[in-house]
Amino acid sequence: MYIKKILPLKYLITFLILISFLAGCTSTKNQTEIKPVSETAFLMGTMAKITIYDELEDKQIFQKVFDRISQIEDRMTINDDNEKSEIMQLNNSGGQAYTKLSADTFYVLEKGKYYSELSNSKFDITIGPLVKLWNIGTESARIPDAMEIEKTLHLINHQNLLLDKGNLSAKLNNAGMIVDLGGIAKGYAADEAAKILREAGIEHAIINLGGNILTLNTKPDGSYYRLGLQDPLEPRGDYMGIVMLNNQALVSSGTYERYFELDGKRYHHILNPKTGYPEENAIFSISIVTEDSVDADALSTVIFLLGLEEGMQMIETLPNTEAIFITSDKKVYTSSGINDSNFEIVKDEYQLQK
Predict the structure, then answer these.
(1) Phi then psi for 254, rounded to 5 degrees?
(2) Do residue 158 and residue 247 come from a single domain?
(3) For residues 112 and 299, is the Cβ–Cβ distance under 8 A?
(4) 252 touches 26 (CB < 8 A)
């Protein structure tokens, strides 16, 4: 059997360059006036890029942002070799006592529990044992056998994650449970980065954490930021549409992000915690536009797992939240707040459904 492994970093770098190009596009006159300043760092397993459009008095602001993102990564990673990880301490204490947490980690756990409940457990932050079993996105990716999956599913239940807000502590009821904040932590990090920029007086900027985008206001000339929307059927950096953002977050999830192929079948990283397998539905990509990146990050996975019909129904109930669905037959479905003023399809083969 032949396994095709996907190493996404080199494509990700190309994608970030494309995003930067689109975000900087404006008239020749405005380009000379704005002169955006950018810096990058490798954080949270991806390329983090901060682009500031305002005049900078203190270039140390970039390092302050990167240090904050690094702090969040240390607290929430599930890498075994990171002794600072509060999530690892929580996971290693399963079935025992409560674990004391920082306000950061507790807040993200609260958010994760909220979206686990909102999705009726289609999204579950205790999915860690299943993620470890499949190892998609690593050199050891594989298809587990049915017995392994059945045993693992018993460990996945967000209701067995207990939170004590008064003492900023948490407990996993059963040994072997694993909290995995991979579907939400980058969104929180982007929000915290934006907070630092705003406190420093920065009014116009883009935060890009490996494709998790958060914009501060508009560009200085009042025009919206223009972000390329990845074509899920093409290599990284090939976009099928443009999304216009104003003080909003954009996060996408899809079958193209991390996967491996075996005997001609693709196994992607968005796992269904109820079946134990990668979710199979008509969606190839879902993009969420909302105010806070932490919500966009979680919802991109939640809505993908819910599917087109149920996912669209949920989006329409959430305030200031929009979605763009791309299906396997190249049809595009949008929520009611997406229109010609904030989204444009640039490839003829993709057809917007009315």
Answers:
(1) -165, 175
(2) no
(3) no
(4) no
Spatial CA neighbour of 231 closest among 255, 250, 212: 255
Longest dimension (CA), the chain: 63
Question: pLDDT tens digits for the chain (354 residues)?
Answer: 333 333 444 344 334 434 444 544 443 344 446 689 999 999 998 999 999 999 988 889 999 999 999 999 999 999 877 789 999 999 999 999 999 999 999 999 999 999 999 999 889 999 999 999 999 988 899 999 999 999 999 999 999 999 999 999 999 999 999 999 988 999 999 999 999 999 999 999 999 998 899 999 999 999 999 999 999 988 888 999 999 999 999 999 988 888 888 888 888 899 999 999 999 999 999 999 999 999 999 999 999 999 999 999 999 999 999 999 999 999 999 999 999 999 999 999 999 997
Q: What count of other Cβ atoms lies within 10 Å of the Cβ of residue 317?
A: 8
Residue 125 lies in a domain: yes
Q: Do 239 and 346 form a contact (C-beta atoms < 8 A)?
A: yes
Question: Do 263 and 304 belong to one domain?
Answer: yes
Q: How far are the Cα atoms of 45, 84, 167, 262 from residue 87, in angstroms, in the given order?
A: 16, 9, 16, 32
E-assigned strands of the chain?
Answer: 3-5, 37-43, 46-52, 99-100, 161-164, 169-172, 205-209, 212-216, 225-230, 239-245, 249-254, 259-262, 265-268, 283-290, 322-327, 331-334, 343-345, 351-352
Q: Are residues 45 and 23 located together in one domain of the fold?
A: yes
Q: Is the dihedral of CA 51, 56, 62, 68 positive or negative?
A: negative
In a 3-state reduction of DSSP, which class is residue 166? helix
In a domain? residue 296: yes
Residues 25 and 52 in one domain: yes
Q: Which of 147, 172, 197 is the last residue of a domain?
A: 172
Structural domain boundaries enclosing 200: 3-66+186-352
